[in-house]
Amino acid sequence: MTTNVCAHLADLGPEPAASTDDGCEDCLAQGTGWVHLRKCLECGKVGCCDSSPQKHASRHAAAAGHPVIRSVEPGETWRWCFVDQVTG
User: Fold this and answer.
1) How far apart are CA 53 and CA 36, in angstroms?
2) What is the mean pLDDT of residues 55-62?
3) Residue 53's closest CA among 30, 69, 73?
4) Which CATH class is domain 7-87?
5) What are residue 15's DSSP bridge partners?
């Protein structure tokens, strides 16, 4: 992973509360499963990663125009910008 800083990562405000603590919001609604969880750092929506069948986190980023997510896996604190494809 790279560690370049992009404007999206540099301009983040306070981290929003998670939309749910139970898993991927959309997978829970659909009754499907996920691999890893990510949280949108603009609105707090919790979605599944791109290794998951539905890829809800990246779908949300594209549809909502919210470019930065954070891993919500235990022990992970990295952030990812979909636009610039960098971690921070």
Assistant:
1) 11
2) 97
3) 30
4) alpha beta
5) none
Domain residue ranges of the chain, discontinuous segments joined by +: 7-87
Residue type, 74: P
Copy the structure tokens of residue 59. Answer: 């779908």
Specify the length of the chain in residues: 88
Q: Using alpha carbons only, what angle is made at residue 70 by residues 30 and 37, rounded to the nearest 5 degrees?
A: 30
pLDDT tens digit sequence for 13-40 = 899 999 999 999 999 999 999 999 999 9
Gyration radius of the chain over CA positions: 12
pTM for the model stands at 0.90
Return the sign of the alpha-carbon dihedral for residues 11, 83, 66, 42: negative
**What's the token pair of residue 23?**
């898993």
Closest Cα partner for 34 from 44, 24, 25?
24
Classify burial at 34, counting beta carbons within 10 Å of its beta carbon; exposed 0-12, middle 13-18, buried 19 or more: buried
